[in-house]
Amino acid sequence: MDGALIEKTCAPCKGGVPPLTPEEAERFHKQVPKWEVRDEARQIEHTFRFKNFGESLSFVQKVGELAEAEGHHPDICFGWAYAKVSLQTKKIKGLHENDFIMAAKIDRLVDQATA
User: Fold this and answer.
1) Domain spans in the chain, listed from the N-terminal domain onward
2) What are phi and psi of 87, to 5 degrees?
3) pLDDT of residue 56
4) What is the pLDDT of residue 17?
5) Sign of the dihedral through C-alpha 25, 30, 32, 33
6) Under CATH, which architecture does the 18-114 domain have?
7) I want to staple 70 with a disulfide (CB 3.0 to 4.6 A). Which of 10, 40, 44, 87 is the partner?
8) Mean pLDDT, 10 residues at a time, the chain of 115 residues
9) What is the pLDDT of residue 55?
């Protein structure tokens, strides 16, 4: 569990491993504090705000490209000036380090767009 999440790559999860415990999830959460740990530490979620629909759509497209590159796909709901991103490793019905890696990389997308 050491090392910066942003420097890691999502590893394929084939299932059969236990999801993170709430304590383990909290340790990873410290590296992505903007995200909310939800559903008894079974998913993380964050709502991003934008100026308009076009910015929301552009963000969703970038997250989609990142998800394809990482092989780890979030649930995304978006509309006028917002995008809500939820991460959970569906094969284990809970959180995995991959979810936090993706959260860190999504945060970096936002940071790069506003820099």
Assistant:
1) 18-114
2) -125, 135
3) 96
4) 87
5) positive
6) 2-Layer Sandwich (3.30)
7) 10
8) 74 82 96 96 97 96 96 96 96 94 95 73
9) 95
Please give the Cα distance from 31 to 29 (Å, whole number): 5
pLDDT score, position 21? 96
Both tokens assigned to 91: 């094969």
Tens digit of pLDDT for each residue in 53-62? Answer: 999 999 999 9
Bridge partner residues of 84 (DSSP)? 47, 77
Distances, alpha carbon 39 to alpha carbons 28, 44, 85, 100, in Å: 16, 8, 14, 15
Q: Closest by alpha carbon to 109, among 53, 51, 67, 52?
A: 67
In sequence order, the 6+-apart residues with CB closer than 8 A to the CB of 95 are 19, 20, 25, 28, 37, 41, 42, 43, 44, 87, 88, 89
Here the tokens at position 41 are: 């530490």
- The 10 Å Cβ neighbour count of residue 86 is 18
